[in-house]
Amino acid sequence: MTRFALLSVTLSASLALAGWTQQGDGEASFDAKGNIGMKIHGVAKKLAVADDGKALTLTVKFDDISTDNTLRDSHLKEDTEATKYPDITLTVPLEGLKLDGGSGTAKGTFAMHGQSKAVSFKYSSRVKDGVTHVEGNADISLKDYGVKVRSYLGVTVKPEVSVAAKFSLKQ
Amino acid sequence: MVSLRSLVLLCLVALPAQAYPWMVRHNYGGCATCHVDPSGAGQLTQYGRAQQELLVKWQTQPLKEGEEVPKTAGFLWFAELPDWLNLSGNLRYGSLIRPTAGPTFLGGIFIPLLMAVDLYVTLNFGPVVAHASTGLGIRVNNNTGRAALLVAQPAAPEPGQPPAAFQAAAAWMAREFWLGLKLADDAVMFRVGRQNLPFGLRNAEHNSYVRELTRTDVNVAQQVGASISYNSEKLRGELLGIIGNYQLGPDIYRERGYSAFAEYAFSNAVNVGASSLVTHAGADIITGLPTVRHVHGLFARMVPTEKLALLMEADLLLWQVTGNADRFGFAAFAQADYEVVQGLHIMVTGEGAHSGGVQRGPNLGGWLSAAWYFFSHCELRLDNIFRRRATAGEGLFEYNLLLQLHAYL
Prior knowledge:
Helix content of chain B: under 10%
Strand content of chain A: over 45%
Shape of chain A: elongated
CATH topology of chain B: Porin
CATH topology of chain A: Lipocalin
Distance between the termini of chain B: 38 Å
Number of helices of chain B: 3
Oligomer: heterodimer
Structural class of chain B: mainly beta
Largest interface: A-B, 21 and 31 residues
CATH class of chain B: Mainly Beta
Number of strands of chain B: 18
CATH architecture of chain A: Beta Barrel
Largest sheet of chain A: 11 strands, antiparallel
Helix content of chain A: 10-25%
Radius of gyration of chain B: 20 Å
CATH superfamily of chain A: Lipid/polyisoprenoid-binding, YceI-like
Order of helices and strands of chain B: HHEEEEEEEHEEEEEEEEEEE
Strand content of chain B: over 45%
CATH class of chain A: Mainly Beta
Structural class of chain A: alpha+beta
Shape of chain B: globular
Number of domains of chain A: 1
Order of helices and strands of chain A: HEEEEEHEEEEEE
């Protein structure tokens, strides 16, 4: 009986810590600009969302990012040292997040290339059939994460990058 | 007039353009990253050569991770040039089959065409750019001696017309030569010299009605002038002040005025632009009358699906003679470019035009084309061109089958 009570308490605590579970793969994207009007759109068709009870952590692997150009993808991984730092993460405290159909601006910690920095982002949520669909975007600077962008045959990407994510959750 | 019609025919059979407006499919809404000319067409930059290898060329196997662009992307398929020097060339050879309509359809005329033998050189010294192209072409003189044009291919007689309706002789020619200055992180460029007219789509089908009637093709329609261009990720455009085509003479035939376009990217999939051109000539090259020529239009490039690019242009034409509106016309173009696999494109094109003359109904055209970019900067292209050319009578149906081999050095 005591064992059963302990197990019950443990399970309850775990459920409380992991209140949101991801539905589907999610998607992340980024838009970068270069000189002479160049623009790059990158997409990752996989985005992992984890809930530890205090914060949501969004994780994208560099291996999953495609910019419609294999050489550019290789350069992206080299410049961000993706072998050493394979993940990009955004950690957002659940407190204050309106995931009941609300929207707003929140703060989180964006991490890549072994460095992290607080970022502000916009988000919106929509509830349909018990599933919460979330979209958000933020502006970051690659300089803040120690990433040196190469100049390739006269074309250079600017360090300011817009990132976006969309995913679905169920409680 | 016969010779002038022949001059027009000369322009019809050549497709030396090197421009891929469908690169918008790969998020290249602007042209300046890949082309020396900030508004596109012609010589590629070193970056453009690399992108052609990666995104345009037929790939038997994908580039491996960490693998760089092969040397075959370089000048002459092997040379690595210093950053300040950009050399390339444009060799295009084709066969044109022009069957005649009706029972004699199979008795068509086979015309071998040396369409382009051009060399390009661009020198980059920091923000200063110098560009020139030169090659062997044909100088064509009107029978009356009142005008001369440079074109890039041998004379092809019109059916039923004597082949020597004009005098033609081989000549060195220069389509473009200009000096440029880049500013504002290369977003702004000033140029002076002989350059392409900034107007509408820089589509490869330079003999399409939209290019022919607006006189903005990149084969023979360059003009001397001063221009300013702007390229950002959302907005691009160029304004050229035209002071004349000095390969056309005498001076009374030279058009002076402006040509301009601006294009805005509403999203990665939708680009919409507007163009405008107004020129004055003491004598129009076709009519011989003092003429103010207006051309104003819209164009768009869209990517509805990953494999499909849509190109559209519609232009209003007005010829003003001695201050009065003499003729109104139009030219329109729509093309669907489907990339079957990387390096193999199927294009379906529709076009229409009216020159405002006594013709009954519009000129109409339909193209069914395929392009295979089978090796580094090499292209094999097949065009089936169906056209109904309007006349004062019932009109003429034309069919041209054009097979081209294009090597870009």
